[in-house]
Amino acid sequence: MRPSPPAGEVILSDLAYSQIEEMITTLKLAPGQAISEAYLSNMLAIGRTPIREALQRLARERLVVIHPRRGIVVSEINVRNQLKLLEVRRELERLIARGAARRAYPDERKKLREIADGMEKAAKKNDDATFLRLDRDFNLLSASAARNDFLSDAIQQLQGLSRRFWYMHYKAVADMPLAATLHAGVARAIADGNEKSAMQASDKLVDYIEAITKATVTADS
Fold first, then answer.
1. Residue 2 lies in a domain
2. Residue-wise pLDDT tens digits, 87-124
3. pTM of the model as a whole
4. 200 and 140: one domain?
5. DSSP 104-135
């Protein structure tokens, strides 16, 4: 059995992951861009071992592609793959919404309401960076509140790709206030413990994401 890394290394790996993931989803690291452990280590002032762990995690989420002996590349964005991803995400998000509405702790329900409020405020200010951070917080919290590790692991591999796709296209085809309203609807239904409403709100959100994904084909043509 592989030994667990030291606690400090785990924290640095998580920090490296969150920072690199945000750079990829906000296109600061562009699709197709070649990157390296050394480059990211110097940029983030984090050792190469935590960077390596973070990149392996990002590779599992298909945000980077690791080519043995050839290097690391930020993955390309593909509409067809995004639509396939949404087929899976729809079912997983529905399960998360139901499970979280049933099992969330009181402090998690309070935090979900705060996230919903924060998303709507960010949308009014057209603050896309804050909106994306809150979206990530919402995804992580709702998945955790569902109390199903298998479900949490499965959905996490899809959400980074979805955030990046949305960020790339939202100015052309999306409506940030509407996106905030739909996300807030899911968060508040979970916070209220209403399983049926949470699942319905989740479906509405994925319907919207699917619609803007299809709209990118027209916008880019």
1. no
2. 999 999 999 999 999 999 999 999 999 999 999 999 99
3. 0.83
4. yes
5. --HHHHHHHHHHHHHHHHHHHTT-HHHHHHHH
